[in-house]
Specification:
By secondary structure, the chain is an alpha+beta fold. The protein has helices at about 10, 20-35, 40-60, 65-70, 75-90, 105-115, 140-145, 250-255, 310-320, 330-340; strands at about 135-140, 150-160, 170, 175, 185-195, 205, 220-230, 235, 240-245, 255-260, 265-270, 280-285, 300-305. The protein starts with 7 loop residues before the first helix and ends with a helix. Bound molecules: zinc ion.
């Protein structure tokens, strides 16, 4: 009895409006999760089923033509599938994929997908060839850039198949677990030290942690592609940092000592008397590390702020201030505007 076909979008956990990129990402994430080589026992059977279902969903939804048909005639598509399944079960001469199990070919396709490699390192049999490089993204906060950081990276490691102990066969038949390859993949976590002061777009190389080579070829390398997370307070410019520092009008006028944020501990800074709005304070060495071992600077742009409400006493003081003789701050602006 054929089980009812599940909705392909539901399988991928996506809405019908999902983009091609959404589909690709969801597929890759779930394929890592469901991959039968990562499970054992009854879980493995369940994962084989889910993995197959996932691949079917991806096959249809990643093909714009097939996706369109599926979107238009969802139920008829299911009937067609059921029909085809029936043909397969009765031994109808259908080419293509077997209804149970996977060929080794299927697996290498999937590993290509998971690792984003162009091809599994192969080459003519007998020639050693190096494994593909693997690339993965890491996003760092500015604080992590300041101090450097050790990141844990999850990756798949090729190991000797546990079932056949790497021989590829069991009791004279090809091993069911590794499909005769003698190799299984297991998730593993490695720690990678990322140096302080790293720039966005930097690739950190970890030698020998890419895909396995074939015929004795050495493993490819792992590259961590570094991006820097947006910070709510600090903007980065090379090794310098920029932030805004709010001050009261009287602090700008009279000068003051105030606390200012840095990437580390807050520091006391001096606002010079008569500071203008948008003027910058420079805190030497409070930026990010540079390649030469020094530090960039932190620039604080003064923002003169007004309280949204003022007390009666403050009002009197402002009135007193307003009565003082002042130049018109707009005089120059008005003259210039007429000259244009
Ligand atoms: Zn095996």
């Amino acid at each position: 009895m054929a089980s009812p076909q599940r909705d392909y979008y539901q399988i991928l956990g996506l809405s019908r409006e999902a983009s091609a990129d959404d589909i690709k990402k969801a597929y890759r994430r779930l394929a890592r999760q469901y991959h039968p080589d990562l499970h054992a026992g009854t879980k493995k059977v369940e994962m084989e089923r889910k993995f197959k279902e996932l691949n079917e969903a991806q096959e249809v939804l990643s093909d714009p033509e097939k996706r369109k048909k599926y979107d238009q005639h969802g139920s008829q598509w299911e009937q067609a599938e059921a029909f085809e399944q029936a043909r397969r079960q009765t031994g109808g001469g259908f080419g293509g994929r077997a209804s149970t199990g996977y060929s080794t070919g299927d697996f290498s396709d999937i590993f290509e997908n998971l690792f984003g490699g162009s091809a599994r390192a192969g080459g003519p049999r007998g020639f050693a060839s190096q494994g593909e490089d693997v690339e993965t993204d890491v996003a760092l906060s500015l604080r992590e850039v300041l101090s450097g950081v050790t990141k844990r990276v999850s990756l798949m490691e090729a190991v000797s198949c546990r079932s056949c102990r790497g021989s590829g066969s069991l009791r004279g038949r090809p091993c069911q677990v590794c499909h005769g390859s003698g190799t299984g993949m297991e998730p593993t976590t490695i720690e990678v030290r990322i140096p302080a002061g790293v720039l966005a777009g930097t690739r950190v190389r970890v030698g020998g942690k890419g895909q396995p080579g074939s015929n004795g070829g050495k493993r490819g390398d792992l590259y961590l592609h570094v991006s820097i997370k947006e910070d709510r307070i600090f903007r980065r410019q090379g090794s310098d940092l920029h932030a805004t520092l709010p001050v009261w009008p009287w602090e700008a006028a009279l000068g003051a000592e105030v606390m200012a944020p840095t990437l580390g501990e807050p520091v006391r800074v001096k606002i010079p008397a008569g500071s203008r709005a948008d003027s910058k304070l420079r805190l030497k060495g409070k930026g990010l590390p540079t390649a030469t071992g020094t530090h960039g600077d932190l620039f604080l742009t003064l923002q003169i702020v007004m309280s949204p409400s003022i007390s009666n006493e403050e009002r009197l003081l402002y009135e007193q201030l307003a009565r003082q003789p002042h130049q018109d701050p707009r005089a120059e602006l008005i003259i210039k505007a007429q000259q244009e």
